[in-house]
């Protein structure tokens, strides 16, 4: 450790020791200063100033009390002068100490997590700090130490702190001054107008400060724009996917004027290229597997013959069946003004579509996401497939190469293998968000069904040789593989669709992953422009988009009266492979990374009567709970119908229901849902009161005699 850091630690230790040994609490009492002030006013002010700087600089307790004492002893304006400079200097001292001791280590240790934070502080650090100083939700000593770890200059920290703390300083010192003016303690003296006003200011200060801060933010955001005198609509929604449709539906139900703009097809990705077609294809592939398994039930049906064109025809038929739910006709009948065209945001209150400008009080951006296409040499020379274009296939690929072993890659790889294609799946990790035990179950089934799975490999180049398409893959050890294929599916995730909407002109910020920066109310930098769904993140699920849409719409229409923070605490997800993986809350991996203590309770589906009858007795239910308690922190189900089974545990987490109540709930027999009850039973068994049961055993033995 550098000598400078050792010296600082020694100084801190000496100050804390002196505080404890010399009874530092005496300096937090007005009598100490009153006695000194009567004889030496200037010396008293100097002693008070130094003590205040030391207390705040070394994060010792009592700064708020010292502020009130300053008003009691020195009066309002002298007290404000002393406290303002002493608190700012002390805060800066704490800031510098934190920076010298910890910043390098913290930035190096957590660099991958702090990138976004550092960029935000570099750009708007002064405003963030001012906000924290103005509304002291977080103790000031914590702000001092944390800001020392961030890339904000010392001088900027000082002057912003002094300015931001000034209003609060005046309120607290004024309260002290009013208390100090009381000569005799009585009901009449306490209830003076000045003291009552001081207490009222103390109570109202956070709300007044928040309102002032909101006004400053709005003024900054809208600088340079002129708000229209009247609006055509209350709300304009850009994008008619899951988030946009729900937003428009809610707005119309609330009798607001709403325009829904979609440049392609109503229903967005979920209906046309995502959930609906993929689950239709998966169902067809499962039918093939069921026929192959029929012999296990004593039924011989021969080898199934797949007509791929008819399979894809049924996929399109299902899309057409669902289309009316998301159609222009339906939403028009609900009172939504549906517009087909490419939307561009001209100003915070203006959206241009088809050459026409729509003025609107609020805007919701729900433009969704599109497949992420990597920059790999030779890829642009190949007619590659994505999760959006694979539905155009009419003939089954002979050898399908799937890039990406996430949920989309695994689902489509398994489905195409079952339908008769030869499939090679390539990716660094299989289902990287899932725990290893869940991913291994899927891996075993994929390999058993014939999918060639190359984990740890990345494709670095595509080439064409003698009429054959070749992918060159390399693993972490430098080993190379050549994969000859006739079709390649790029399934490397999705990126937010934000282009050609005027967002750059409005300086609406993006996160490093391309999603729009929104606050806890789903607002962008403009308080009347919201974003929800895939374009906002952090989840790319249809149900997450619908969930966000409620918050975005209600906040947009009624935010001036009441705003709602979007709640992500219980967000389930399902990977529709066979077996399915359903997850809610913490995984074991997440709990370890976050340092959260947990217990694991498991129940194997190989012990479940209905699973055995269905010939689906593989998989498990895994529940993470707080140590010694039945409160659910997370759950994972692997097996048949896992996506349906997880709903009970999602509800339990949402409503705060523990495993004991699940165990006490009657589940129909024989059903797959009993797995949740038996998992709860395993938890109860592991937490049985053994000592009490031994006494009960003795009691029963005594009764037999």
TrEMBL record:
<feature type="transmembrane region" description="Helical">
    <location>
        <begin position="195"/>
        <end position="213"/>
    </location>
</feature>
<feature type="transmembrane region" description="Helical">
    <location>
        <begin position="46"/>
        <end position="69"/>
    </location>
</feature>
<dbReference type="Pfam" id="PF02852">
    <property type="entry name" value="Pyr_redox_dim"/>
</dbReference>
<keyword id="KW-1015">Disulfide bond</keyword>
<keyword id="KW-0676">Redox-active center</keyword>
<feature type="domain" description="Pyridine nucleotide-disulphide oxidoreductase dimerisation">
    <location>
        <begin position="571"/>
        <end position="677"/>
    </location>
</feature>
<keyword id="KW-0812">Transmembrane</keyword>
<dbReference type="InterPro" id="IPR023753">
    <property type="entry name" value="FAD/NAD-binding_dom"/>
</dbReference>
<dbReference type="GO" id="GO:0050660">
    <property type="term" value="F:flavin adenine dinucleotide binding"/>
</dbReference>
<dbReference type="GO" id="GO:0003955">
    <property type="term" value="F:NAD(P)H dehydrogenase (quinone) activity"/>
</dbReference>
<dbReference type="Pfam" id="PF09335">
    <property type="entry name" value="VTT_dom"/>
</dbReference>
<keyword id="KW-0521">NADP</keyword>
<keyword id="KW-0472">Membrane</keyword>
<keyword id="KW-0285">Flavoprotein</keyword>
<dbReference type="InterPro" id="IPR036188">
    <property type="entry name" value="FAD/NAD-bd_sf"/>
</dbReference>
<dbReference type="InterPro" id="IPR012999">
    <property type="entry name" value="Pyr_OxRdtase_I_AS"/>
</dbReference>
<dbReference type="GO" id="GO:0016668">
    <property type="term" value="F:oxidoreductase activity, acting on a sulfur group of donors, NAD(P) as acceptor"/>
</dbReference>
<dbReference type="InterPro" id="IPR016156">
    <property type="entry name" value="FAD/NAD-linked_Rdtase_dimer_sf"/>
</dbReference>
<protein>
    <submittedName>
        <fullName>FAD-dependent oxidoreductase</fullName>
    </submittedName>
</protein>
<dbReference type="InterPro" id="IPR004099">
    <property type="entry name" value="Pyr_nucl-diS_OxRdtase_dimer"/>
</dbReference>
<comment type="similarity">
    <text>Belongs to the class-I pyridine nucleotide-disulfide oxidoreductase family.</text>
</comment>
<keyword id="KW-0560">Oxidoreductase</keyword>
<dbReference type="Pfam" id="PF07992">
    <property type="entry name" value="Pyr_redox_2"/>
</dbReference>
<feature type="transmembrane region" description="Helical">
    <location>
        <begin position="126"/>
        <end position="150"/>
    </location>
</feature>
<feature type="transmembrane region" description="Helical">
    <location>
        <begin position="234"/>
        <end position="254"/>
    </location>
</feature>
<feature type="transmembrane region" description="Helical">
    <location>
        <begin position="157"/>
        <end position="175"/>
    </location>
</feature>
<dbReference type="GO" id="GO:0005886">
    <property type="term" value="C:plasma membrane"/>
</dbReference>
<feature type="domain" description="FAD/NAD(P)-binding">
    <location>
        <begin position="234"/>
        <end position="549"/>
    </location>
</feature>
<keyword id="KW-1133">Transmembrane helix</keyword>
<feature type="domain" description="VTT">
    <location>
        <begin position="61"/>
        <end position="177"/>
    </location>
</feature>
<keyword id="KW-0274">FAD</keyword>
<feature type="transmembrane region" description="Helical">
    <location>
        <begin position="76"/>
        <end position="102"/>
    </location>
</feature>
<dbReference type="InterPro" id="IPR032816">
    <property type="entry name" value="VTT_dom"/>
</dbReference>
